[in-house]
């Protein structure tokens, strides 16, 4: 009888230990979910004020307008350009693959019509570059900006002149401010220029 009583006592004691383990697991799961929820709320709160701030609002608008899901970007790959560079000490050439990001499909259709003028402008631009200019990151960035401008010229769009050093000496500060304001207003149909290949030999 004492053995039977001990077995019954052990059987009665076992369920509470199992319940304690189950309760601990449930509490741990609830805590993990609560911590995850609090973390998500904090991240969402950090993003919302950053977009509402004045300084951060402008880049957000630019990125939204550039990658609007209703009007996805249009990419136009150009045939590769092979051109002799303007190096005087040695004969060097560049092979450059360019893909243009355009503002809409209408511009892509116009680009096909004006392709000879666009290719001419880009070839003339590349032919005046030296290998030293194109090997540097700043040179490639400047080339991308110039390709966007020359492509727009090839499409028949009047492009405002860039500030040269000679113009900077002649112009007054008020004229400089006016030209900078005009540049900000002018929107080119080429929103970005991407290099698919860039070989200099």
Biggest beta sheet summary: 4 strands, antiparallel
Based on the structure, what is the oligomeric state of the protein chains? single chain
The helix tally amounts to 8
Using the coordinates above, name the CATH class of the largest domain: Alpha Beta
Strand content: 5-15%
CATH topology of the largest domain: Tetrahydropterin Synthase, Chain A
The structure class reads alpha+beta
Helix content: 55-70%
CATH architecture name of the largest domain: 2-Layer Sandwich
Overall shape: elongated
Question: Could you give the order of the helices and strands?
Answer: HHEEEHHHHHHE
Separation, N- and C-terminal Cα atoms = 99 Å
Notes on the protein architecture:
The chain is built from 8 helices and 4 strands; from the N terminus they run ααβββααααααβ. The chain is elongated. Strands 1, 2, 3 and 4 form a 4-stranded antiparallel beta sheet that branches. Residues 48-65, 164-170 and 179-183 have low confidence and may be disordered. The protein has 2 domains: 2-66; 74-200, Tetrahydropterin Synthase, Chain A (2-Layer Sandwich). β2 and β3 form a beta hairpin. With 201 residues, the protein is an alpha+beta fold. Helices cover 64% and strands 14% of the residues.
Show the helix and strand layout.
Blueprint: H1 2-52, H2 54-66, E1 74-77, E2 81-84, E3 93-102, H3 105-113, H4 115-127, H5 131-135, H6 137-154, H7 165-170, H8 173-185, E4 190-200
Helix pairs in contact: 4-6
